[in-house]
Design brief:
alpha/beta, TIM Barrel, 8-stranded parallel beta barrel, 8 helices, 18 strands, 29% helix, 19% strand, globular
Amino acid sequence: MGTPGVRRLIRNGKVTDPSSPSLATTAAGITFQNPIVLAAGTAAYGREIANVVALDRLGGLVTKAVSVEVRPGAPAPRVADFGDGMINAVGLANPGMDVVKRDELPWLAANVQRARVMVNVVGRILEDFAQVVETLDDAPGFQAFELNVSCPNTRAGGLEFGADRDALTALVSRARARTKRPLFVKLSPTLANIGDTAKCAADAGADGISVVNTIPGLVIDPDTRRPALGFGTGGVSGPGLRPVGVLATYRVRQAVSLPILGLGGVTTADDALQYLLAGASIVGIGTAALADPRQPERIVDGLRRWCSTHGVARISEIIGTLEWPS
């Protein structure tokens, strides 16, 4: 006999109460307690937001960029709100891999227990990525790397690593040789065929794909007749990026079987569900978390309510279940 008012489902021979759904999901062998992670650059290295975000309530976080050398970043102002979203040019500012290994990763190991951590890796030349991965590989406090191949390759005249198949293959292969930890490769939404690029990364040894990065844009202040950002151009994020990211997620899911971190424009639980249905295993929150640091926690609660309302016992069951019109 079931409890009155509660619909019970049979899953693998066991009775499951959908009012207490499981939000756990697995990506690249890593179990996340829920699908919501903080996107690279929005959580710094964790400690900067620990007083305002309950990190261990989330599925995880992706750290701020880590490069071989210290990077001072772009000139101020670095961020501007343009009404429909945000544009930023932080310039991948970071203290360099040695400081991150000495100071930041041990803090994460000591203070973040349940949330999973990925380290975002950047470079100016191809060899930088493997060097960062090798340097950090034996450090505590994280489970995977995210390779930001949207960076410009200074040896190739500024062409993005992800836009050059040979460079992408070499980059991922060299990083793969330096670690056994999972490697996620973060792709730009401006790629001509993002599915083919994801397949190239998979063939080179990637364990997961992150889509999408920001879209290049320009915001001008009419009064000064100058760009709103000190660097000039920047990366556009916010709600307008969501349909782009959801489509990229769907296209990558059709091309490869690797787990996907889907991100771009997520502000609500419904937004996150779009990414999950399109094929993402985990979902990144960026601009919304900067605007309201508690919003990611609300999105987790919203996913739990949605599952209860729709009789979904495990949120992992809906991943990639988008029904395409015939």
